[in-house]
Amino acid sequence: MTSDKPSPRPLKVALLGCGVVGSDVARLLTQDADELARRIGAPVELVGIAVRRPGRERELDLPAELFTTDAKALVSRGDLDVVVEVIGGIEPARDLILTALEHGASVVTANKALLAEDGATLYEAAAKAERDLFYEAAVAGAIPIVRPLRESLAGDRVTRVLGIVNGTTNFILDAMTSTGADFAEALEEAQALGYAEADPTADVEGFDAAAKAAILASLAFHTRVTMDDVHREGISDVTAAHVASAAERGSVVKLLAICEQHETPDGPAVSARVHPAMIPDDHPLASVRGAFNAVFVESESAGQLMFYGPGAGGAPTASAVLGDLVTVARNRVDGVFGPGESSHAQLEVLGMGRTRTAYHISLDVADRPGVLAAVAQAFAEQEVSIRTVHQEGHGDDATLVVVTHVADDAALSATVARLRDLDMVRGVSSVMRVEGGR
Amino acid sequence: MTSDKPSPRPLKVALLGCGVVGSDVARLLTQDADELARRIGAPVELVGIAVRRPGRERELDLPAELFTTDAKALVSRGDLDVVVEVIGGIEPARDLILTALEHGASVVTANKALLAEDGATLYEAAAKAERDLFYEAAVAGAIPIVRPLRESLAGDRVTRVLGIVNGTTNFILDAMTSTGADFAEALEEAQALGYAEADPTADVEGFDAAAKAAILASLAFHTRVTMDDVHREGISDVTAAHVASAAERGSVVKLLAICEQHETPDGPAVSARVHPAMIPDDHPLASVRGAFNAVFVESESAGQLMFYGPGAGGAPTASAVLGDLVTVARNRVDGVFGPGESSHAQLEVLGMGRTRTAYHISLDVADRPGVLAAVAQAFAEQEVSIRTVHQEGHGDDATLVVVTHVADDAALSATVARLRDLDMVRGVSSVMRVEGGR
Prior knowledge:
2 copies of one chain form a homodimer. Chain A is an alpha/beta fold. The first copy, chain A, folds into 3 domains: 161 residues, NAD(P)-binding Rossmann-like Domain (Rossmann fold, 3-Layer(aba) Sandwich); 165 residues, Dihydrodipicolinate Reductase, domain 2 (2-Layer Sandwich); 80 residues, Alpha-Beta Plaits. Helices cover 36% and strands 26% of the residues of chain A. Chain A is built from 14 helices and 18 strands. In chain A, the strands form 2 sheets. In chain A, strands 7, 8, 9, 10, 11, 12, 13, 14, 15, 16, 17 and 18 form a 12-stranded mixed sheet that branches. In chain A, helix 1 crosses helix 12 and helix 7 crosses helix 8. The longest helix of chain A is centred in the C-terminal third of the chain and has 21 residues. The interface between A and B is large, with 63 and 63 residues. Strand 12 of chain A pairs antiparallel with strand 12 of chain B, so a sheet runs across the interface.
């Protein structure tokens, strides 16, 4: 097998970025060099590390001459086999990856934002250069999900992906569920424990999860899906009351990335969205606690699969990067490359209004004859079918909780708009989607 | 990328076995031929199906001339690219796989028994022939676990694998947990529902799980581990009382396949075992219900990962076979082959006595002064540390429930033997290992 082949020459690897993930990659590359050489079939040589501030003390025991601030010169050397990009963000990461590919290197990246915004440019550059572009670490950290979607399920048809792909928001929602805290308190706790950043926008408003949803949908459905195609709602409007309502119906609130295949009159289409939703306690995703991530995949033949693990952190992300590096390096030794972008299906990407979901709606109403009839009529006008209705309280403090069957999101939101206009409805106190039902 | 390359020629595939899994493989191969051709980069042609009884009516709409009873002649044709083996068992499967490799075909197999008994012969034959031998379907059905262990974690060090890898026993234990039924009742229910066979020995006595444990340990630790190296205990002695005891301490009883890396005075070593164990309710494996499977992997960098899904069934297993087939076929198009056996570590495989575990022990005792002292002394003699002791009942009907800290299994079982000899102990009513603690 490959590991028995004589090694033609050491493989030259350059690392872009030496923060939390990059330091761990450098450490694993140097500390386990012999083991990696056996697994790859050739020794690996770390030839350069691009950093912004080379003077900064690093905990790595590496020669100072490895470090450079000139990333562009590093990726333009022309003798690199693999470039590992863990800088993040759009630029200069995109320019450096494109330059690396042009100069003959394969690329391993953890850059979800770039892949979600402009993956097509990268995939096309890799295809043109006949080089690998691998990115297991970009989605759900150490959890192997890109490789299973690209390879294990290559003979199957994925119909749906439901993911908890942001650890910060899962930590916050889990804290709200277990302690009854409201969003602000739980966010503060997450910040104190280092699970949320000082500016938590990218996480709590769902931007991070939306980038991952775009990548997952692209992989699952062989269709280019970008960040702009993803409907996005964060968790900052989730209240302790939502969480309590969910608990009453045996559910929990999770921020989900949902990628689905749809059958429309015009043929198959896909959608991708990120929003908080109630899912039943017995759904495998319901028990994903703390900052863990999990991706639940439904496919025609394999049925329901779930992949669970740490979604972030230096060492887990570095593990995913190293796994890719071994595959890409082995491909270099063999003179081949792995599966590239698969976008042959190019299905239509539906807007949020055409996705199918169910709503959990709480209405403040006066407990008077005719209220339920008026409310039911608002649903019927949009052809939305009601699954359950519960009334809590009575007199002027009554609350009507309605859970619908699945319908087009546009019909559901039009129903909510109509309810707000009804004289008998004092207010719509909460609306949340319901997912994961069977 | 590969899918854009002109196809040199169709790839010839032969199928050995056309039972539940084989029929689904044949169906997917023919029904999705265009999609597979796009993913592989060349069309796939099913050129023969070896069956035992060709006259049998099959639900597949395939030409009669594809079927043959002469499997040996089929695999000896010399023009096959891939042979898919789903016959199962040792012979003639082994002979047919070896013959296929000798004649230049790559092999995809779902045969756990053969891999666990004599994998080395197959891996060596594949290496010699420079052909692929892929077997994702052999462990945990459709759940991608072989590929993640072989590739995604190739830059990491796996320290422990805990798997629920037999759906029949998980269904029975889950039924016992949810209904309080005893083993015989739950087995009967499983048989009535088709989850257990008329002769359930292979499942309930842990043979099936032990084969999978051998394969998982080999992959995780780069060491040859065979069926004979795996300590095996089934679930036929698990009682409703065990399940109730587990529930009292917030745990559930599961049949686990446990593969571990150990540090010994002589260096690193590994172990593999299958036995029922109590695991805490908040462990991700505890919520694996019914006939589902899950594999929990602990590694140095990635941390804790879990892979969950259907562990058996025609369509899920066929999905795993097809995923392998796409990879192997793509490798044929590229003229390369994938990762082979990785047994370079060749660590010592420890016997059960040297593995580390904890025990939950129930003793029938007389509630008299000195009982606890005598019992505690028996543990101390073997240097086994006690974690908790509870006494239930009193007088002549007292039960002492002892949970230990982790110790060598040999010391724990010697302690149990000693307890049985104590005058003050009327009997050891149950012993079960405890796993999954943190």
